[in-house]
Specification:
By secondary structure, this protein is α/β, with parallel strands linked by helices. It has helices spanning 15-31, 46-54, 73-87, 98-111, 221-230, 238-242, 273-279, 308-321, and strands at residues 2-5, 8-9, 12-13, 35-40, 59-63, 91-95, 115-122, 129-134, 139-144, 150-154, 171-175, 206-210, 233-236, 263-267, 284-289, 302-305. It comes from Desulforhopalus singaporensis.
């Protein structure tokens, strides 16, 4: 059995969780194993079970306990550990998110098992053979993972979330773990709503990003105008954040937001590996930079060598002429 830990928000699976389910389902089909979804602490399981069915998952374990009402990483890890003991799972995987990595790290510590984060591939012939992204996704490491149960997280955007070839009506198995108050000493008690409304970096189909080449906080006005015309959002590099030109919430990169728009327009950004990690989920990348040697051109689908302060106004003028 391959067990997938489901991450959700308001009874809906997160995008990274859908990617993990797709990865796990396809791996199980090739290896001849069963992929089982594990839902922990959800107040309403039905929408999540239905969603898993659309992604071809035939069995779901739902874990419920008074101490699972709020997200608590230690309680989640303890629950998964007990499910492993009961099911003898060969592998447990979770999304490569902050929450997924946190829970799996606690699970590895309490189980005395090694854990591999940011996995991009697992051999169907030998589940111990994995490939994972290292050094900000700048290299791929092939490794052998020891332990009776393999613990991994799936790197964001290494697969595209896709529903199963056929939908299933998952069989549900209830599980009540043994937990104590010590397991919830650290827990999530509330979430502050995002102050940003409407289009954000996370949901925008177009993102216009600016870096050192923009030159000043005031100069971002032309990026904002283009983003508004295209119904998109404005992002920035770490340099822009460090210089105080844009808030950290606008930063795209390894230590910022990871985006997946249809189009990312990078303006005056050199293309440091940390930034590339944040935008690798983009469908297409357009780079505008006056330095023809900028590293970002090597990752671009479209490239414009020129001053962004000349190129962007020209694009805006043409879009307006086209009635956009």
């Amino acid at each position: 059995m391959i067990l997938g830990v489901i991450e959700y928000e308001q009874s809906t699976m997160t995008e990274l969780s859908l990617q993990m389910v797709t990865f796990g389902r396809d791996l199980a089909e090739k290896s001849g194993d069963e992929f089982v979804g594990l839902i922990i602490g959800a107040s309403d399981n039905a929408p999540l079970i239905g969603e898993l069915g659309r992604y071809g998952v035939a069995k779901v374990i739902t874990a419920a306990h008074e101490n699972l009402k709020d997200y608590a990483p230690v309680a989640w890890a303890n629950t998964i550990s007990q499910v492993i003991d009961q099911t003898q799972a060969k592998m447990v995987m979770a999304p490569g998110s902050d929450q997924g990595n946190e829970v799996m790290a606690h699970l590895a510590a309490r189980s005395d098992l090694p854990m591999a984060t940011n996995c991009a591939a697992v051999s169907a012939d030998d589940l111990s053979r994995i490939t994972r992204l290292r050094w900000g996704s700048s290299l791929m490491e092939e490794a052998i993972l020891t332990g009776d149960c393999k613990l991994i997280t799936i790197a964001p955007f290494v697969v595209e979330a896709a529903e199963g070839a056929s939908h299933a009506e998952p069989a549900e198995e209830s599980f009540e773990p043994t937990l104590s108050d010590q397991d919830i000493q650290v827990r999530l008690i509330r979430k502050e709503p995002d102050e940003t409304e409407g289009i954000t970096l996370k949901n925008a189909s177009v993102v216009v990003g600016g870096g050192r080449g923009v030159g000043s906080p005031e100069a971002y006005s032309v990026l904002e105008e283009l983003a508004k015309l295209l119904g998109g959002a404005v992002g920035c590099s770490r340099v822009a954040t460090n210089n105080g030109w844009r808030p950290h919430s606008d930063q795209v990169g390894l230590t910022g937001t990871r985006i997946s728009p249809e189009l990312y327009i990078a303006c005056g950004i050199s293309g440091a590996i940390q930034h590339l990690v944040g935008c690798k989920g983009a469908g297409k990348i357009m780079v505008i930079n006056k330095d023809p040697e900028a590293a970002f051109f090597g990752k671009a689908d479209y490239g414009v060598i020129g001053d962004l302060h000349e190129v962007l106004p020209a694009i805006i003028e043409e879009l307006k002429a086209q009635g956009v």
